[in-house]
Amino acid sequence: MTSIYAAAFFCSTLILLNLVSVGIAMVRTRPKMRAAPTPAPAPGVSIVRPVCGLDNFCEETLGSSFSLDYPLYEIIFCVARGSDPVAPLVRRLIAAHPKIPARLIVGDEKVSANPKLNNCVRGWDAAQHDYIVLADANVMMPKDYIQRLLAGFGPTTGLVCSMPLGSRPQNLWAELECAFLNTFEARWQYAAAGVAGGFAQGKNMMWRRQVLEAGGGIRALAAEIAEDAASTKLVRAQGLTVDLVDRPFEQPLGRRSLRDVWMRQLRWARMRRKTFPLHYAPEIFAGAALPCLVAAYGAHALDASAFGVLGAAVLTALVWHIPEMILARTAGWHFSWRMPLMFVLRDLMLPIMYVDAWFVDNFTWRGNEMSVREEPSAHGG
Fold it and tell me: Is the peptide bond before 41 cis (omega within 30 degrees of 0)?
């Protein structure tokens, strides 16, 4: 009987933690009727957007940079090579919005093995304002984008971030990516922020210039293979916090392949394991696979039939995933009849990814062969 009680306690504890994480996310992502207000006086903001290649919805996401309802901001696009196919699009957008201060910087600075960081360095150096946003090209910026980032700053905040929120999936595998990004990763990031402090997410990072400069400047982010991990450590070293924006910003997905989703999640898992191994270790408990397996074991220990064992696993999965469904609906995130199936598939994939991350170091990102075991650059210390 001891093993049965242990199984019940284990499943109950994880289900409770799952419910708490959903509750935290529901509070942080409540839809609001009004746009975030502009502070008075409104500080100037520089938006640095590294670009590389043509992504799904690229013209729309980059174009959203010019439609912000904010009185004082500039946009700095950075591209490593002038021959990149995204460069003509950026120049066309700049020409179509002459009233918005914007420019394209061509050429990167090799400070690390991270091509995105290399692409941002010259943009950071050229920024005119004291609040600087580093935002990926595939982020959709709502009109109150800057206001919502600024609202995240408190007395001890060094950096405000937003995780990506998957939207507009156009096939099954893009919906699988929504299952990873939204009700799983965004939810657990909010929960982690309430327990261990926020972790930077490289999709959207608003810096106060003096914070990054006090830590060695943007080149100091070369200390880690992932610039967001380096950002987290740099901010915490100053006794400051990384805070998360309410209501994450969208990343429209379009079409995805299963390989795209799988390799992206593997890359992120390997980088989390390398940069924050102690925080990564308990991730095995974040999905439904383990509690479902333990529930099935408990039913088997009670001499249940095969149907009863399966029923225990299914019931645990329902108790686990129904709150996720409610979160997606109440937050206004993408949800379709296929999403519960994607939750199950995702949670079957998670243990494989978890084990992989402990043993595999290499990955490919935008054609660049990289390894989480690469030594930091001289700039990064």
Answer: yes
Q: pLDDT tens digits, residue range 124-150? A: 999 999 999 999 999 999 999 999 999
Domains and CATH numbers, the chain: 1-30+172-198+255-381 (no CATH), 39-171+199-254 (3.90.550.10)
List beta partners, residue 371: 362
Give the residue among 101, 105, 112 at the shortest CA–CA distance from 49: 105
DSSP notation for 24-59: HHHHHT---SSPPPPPSSPPPEEEEEEE-S--TTHH
The residue behind tokens 């088997």 is 300
pTM of the model: 0.91
Q: Going by DSSP bridges, is the β-strand pair 204-208/157-162 parallel, antiparallel, or unpaired? A: antiparallel
308-324 pLDDT, tens digit per residue, is 889 999 999 999 999 99
Q: Is 34 exposed, middle or buried (0-12, 13-18, 19+ CB in 10 A)?
A: exposed
Residue count of the chain: 381
